Amino acid sequence: MPGVIEAADLTKVFGAITAVDRVSFEVREGEIFGFLGPNGAGKTTTTRMLTGVIPMDGGSARVLGHDIRREPVQAKQRFGVVPETSNAYVDLTAWQNLMLMGELYGLDRNRANERSRDLLETLGLYERRDQKVQGYSKGMRQRLILALALLHEPELLFLDEPTSGLDVQSTQMILVLLRALNADGTTIFLTTHNMEEANRLCDRIGIIRSGRIVAIDAPEKLKTAIDRVHRIEVSFDREIAGDLLSGLAGITGAGRTGDKWQITAEDQDTAIRSLVSFSRQEGLAILTLNTLAPSLDEVFLRLTGEEERL
Amino acid sequence: MNPAGTSEQIRRAWAIAKKDIRIYYLKGPVLIFGIFMPVFLFLAFFMGGRQLPLAFLLSGLMGMTLFFTSTAVSPAIFPWEGQAKTLERLAACPVAIETIVLGDMIASILFGIGVTAVTLLIALALGLGLLHGIVLGSAVLLAAVCFSALGMLIAVPPTNVPSNIMMLSSLLKFPLVFISGIFVPLEQMPAWGLYLAVCSPLTYFTDLVRYSFTGAHYFPVAVDIAALALFTLVFTAATMHLHRRTMPRRM
Ligand SMILES: Nc1ncnc2c1ncn2[C@@H]1O[C@H](COP(=O)(O)OP(=O)(O)OP(=O)(O)O)[C@@H](O)[C@H]1O
Ligand SMILES: [Mg+2]
């Protein structure tokens, strides 16, 4: 099955800066794809090229089967965009903004009314629908532009940092909605700085640094890929000697912090099995057993902090 | 439904025009450059030039009104929308750049025709007799399209500072008014003035308006209309082409 987004060697040059440098990736149908990278890495520029807002200087992109340069209108008809900066018409009310979008996407009036009501109710804006967007708070604007992007029931949704600067409630509301949309089959391309969000939400993650893709994989695989040495935290109901643990198969070291043992292991699986059989032999009860994978933050810092390699 | 089809795109251009009408008609600069300026310009002239017949003055006023009003809205929309980032919204919507330009032109055309209709009513109330209604109607329609395309053309430089474009547009519009036979009849112009006058679309429109009210004209009516139509085509084609090229630089 062809990808919903197929980017091949996407390139964008601004004067002396190559903002996006031969970026290639594929987003599959039905997945949530996270696009991560430090400030200025080229996330927004990539998103803008994929959504046909700015032309690319090199490479090509197919979105929902349409070449975004040759058939932009057909592609745009089928996806929705939540851009980096809120861009509803502030001189119009929320309702007027939605009606405008309805007309720009060719929805018939009844359908537009119905969808607008549902979306505004879901996003907690229905009571404020006749107020000019001028008077909206940042969180309300962000929820509104999400509603504007969803009005025509797109098959694919692009979001550029949709939750940046929002409070917990607004963030939660948006994340819940994104999950529900995805469960109903919407493919999501999400740019974010928030590792926790990416970790919980995304099926796969692409990391971009200085305009280049440095890794693409599932979050858990990215985490294990960067650390050859695994860490396990374990505690028992009785005191034991440390050298007993470090001698076990698969375990390379054991140190004590508080009432827990910090184990380092070459191979996580073997180490856990030997811990379990060790405790059975010794008649110990395991109180806690945690595998300490590196956080996505660490993965991110490691991948984006490395010296420029050629 | 083919979203990229012409009829669908025209329908969407109308949606853009309605949005423009809601938002931009009442913006300060539009009112100042579109309505107050021509009124004051005309009043100043009216006080000093009483020896000219009323029919000449009023048809000049109508020419100037349509010119100022239909170039008032169109140049400002792109910079405003670029500044407010709403242009990025339109760019991500399933509308061609030509559709956006057309929508802005429609809003500009309607503004021009609306205000000019008011001037016409005032002229009629002042006792001016209309001799050729159909010619006047077609001239207003054609010229409104022509001037709004000219307005869009002024907005081609991809700046997102509306006042820059307003300045540029005044720099272009005021000289045009003076060479277009509004204040000085073409018959009384020196030769070099006439050379300039034929380069201005406003000349042909003013000539047509004068003909509609007085029966007198400088160029044959058919020449006036053909010249206006040619300017309209060239301006419209040029503005669509150039905006397609500069639009990405506004983002
Ligand atoms: N319109 C533009 N003109 C010139 N340079 C630009 C333009 N847009 C982006 N850039 C440059 O391209 C690079 C990538 O910018 P981009 O906005 O894509 O980064 P980003 O990954 O979205 O960053 P952030 O996390 O801060 O949003 C930056 O160096 C930026 O300065
Ligand atoms: Mg960005």
List the SSEs and their pairings.
The complex is a heterodimer of chains A (310) and B (251).
Chain A: E1 5-14, E2 17-27, E3 32-36, H1 43-50, E4 58-63, E5 66-67, H2 72-76, E6 79-82, H3 94-104, H4 109-122, H5 138-150, E7 156-160, H6 168-183, E8 187-192, H7 195-201, E9 204-209, E10 212-217, H8 219-226, E11 230-236, H9 242-246, E12 251-257, E13 260-265, H10 268-282, E14 286-292, H11 296-305
Parallel strand pairs in A: 3-8, 3-9, 6-7, 7-8
Antiparallel strand pairs in A: 1-2, 1-4, 4-5, 9-10, 11-13, 11-14, 12-13
Helix pairs in contact in A: 3-4, 3-5, 8-11
Chain B: H1 6-24, H2 28-48, H3 54-70, H4 74-84, H5 86-92, H6 97-125, H7 133-154, H8 162-179, H9 191-197, H10 201-214, H11 221-246
Bound molecules: adenosine-5'-triphosphate and magnesium ion (MG).
Short description:
Chain A is an alpha/beta fold and 310 residues long. Chain A has helices at 43-50, 72-76, 94-104, 109-122, 138-150, 168-183, 195-201, 219-226, 242-246, 268-282, 296-305, and strands at residues 5-14, 17-27, 32-36, 58-63, 66-67, 79-82, 156-160, 187-192, 204-209, 212-217, 230-236, 251-257, 260-265, 286-292.
Description of the molecule:
The complex is a heterodimer of chains A (about 300) and B (about 250). In chain A, about 35% of the residues lie in helices and about 30% in strands. Chain A has about 300 residues and is an alpha/beta fold. Chain A folds into 2 domains: about 5-220, P-loop containing nucleotide triphosphate hydrolases (Rossmann fold, 3-Layer(aba) Sandwich); about 230-290, Alpha-Beta Plaits. In chain A, strands 6-7-8-3-9-10 form a 6-stranded mixed sheet, with helices on both faces. A 4-stranded antiparallel sheet of chain A has the order 2-1-4-5. Chain A has a 4-stranded antiparallel sheet with strand order 12-13-11-14. In chain A, helix 3 (about 95-105) crosses helix 4. The longest helix of chain A is centred in the middle third of the chain and has 16 residues, at about 170-185. Chain A is elongated, with a radius of gyration of 24 Å. The longest helix of chain B is centred in the middle third of the chain and has 29 residues, at about 95-125. Chain B has one domain (about 5-250). Chain B has about 250 residues and is an all-alpha fold. Chain B contains 11 helices and no strands. Chains A and B meet through helix 2 and helix 3 of A and helix 1 and helix 5 of B. The complex binds adenosine-5'-triphosphate and magnesium ion. Magnesium ion (MG) binds near residues 44, 84 and 160 of chain A. The site of magnesium ion (MG) has 4 residues of chain A, from helix 1.
